[in-house]
Amino acid sequence: MIEARDVVKYFGRFKALDRVSFDVREGEKVVILGPSGSGKSTLLRSINQLETIDAGRIVVNGIDINDPATDITRVREEVGMVFQSFNLFPHKTVLENLTLAQVVVRKRSRQEAREKGLELLRKVGIAEKADVFPGRLSGGQQQRVAIARSLAMDPKLMLFDEPTSALDPEMIGEVLDVMKGLAREGMTMVVVTHEMGFAREVADRVIFMDHGAIVEEGTPEHFFTSP
Ligand code: ADP
Ligand code: ADP
């Protein structure tokens, strides 16, 4: 699903990604760990074309995303991304947040988009909030809406960039539960997180980054079992 080879990314003279190579197979759950500033976010953003890379190659679901001939919107449509901040549209209701892109990008009818939106809100356990504005929701609820909004585009791959880092501790579990549900359904997921319990429970593979490079890669057992 993802094939990254020798990816290099500079911000000015600062090398944020230093020859990063890794693969993610269909259905695989990969958790990326590493200290702040180690390049985790830049790597995810590069996969979703929010950053352009300076060298190397990233192929997502068979599409070479750095080939100038590639239609970026096609890649973005296949890759869902959830950020630390929920980025919901504040002046749209929860349900409208879910239907907008379906109608505009996916060209679904309003009725179809509403049905799909409501189904996804039920899935993340928040259907009763369909008609309220995001500002009325807790952080955990907003993040669940953000996940549902991504899913409304039928992504083949979901990227999560510290999805629980901005949440109060008591709300972290409800978001992780939604993510665990997605994992059980077989979604291909790459997750940057500091939640070690999630990594241990869900990850097929853990990647550890430091100073823009992958310094270790292995199973959760490899990382979390003391010798
Ligand atoms: P992480 O997600 O592991 O905390 P990031 O990928 O966000 O790390 O950042 C890696 C490094 O690149 C950090 O030193 C950060 O300050 C720097 N960086 C990230 N984005 C930019 C940018 N747009 N301009 C300049 N430096 C950046
Ligand atoms: P995250 O916690 O999601 O990694 P950051 O707080 O590191 O996000 O970065 C937020 C935004 O600021 C990103 O768009 C990132 O590219 C940019 N950024 C991060 N570090 C720098 C920097 N040193 N100079 C300029 N922009 C930066």
From TrEMBL:
Domain ABC transporter: residue ranges: 2-227
Record has Nucleotide-binding as a keyword: yes
GO MF annotations, alphabetized: ATP binding
Alphabetized UniProt keyword annotations: ATP-binding, Nucleotide-binding, Transport
Entry keyword Transport: yes
Source domain of life: Bacteria
Pfam families referenced in this protein's UniProt entry, alphabetically: ABC_tran
Family label: Belongs to the ABC transporter superfamily.
Name of the featured protein: Amino acid ABC transporter ATP-binding protein
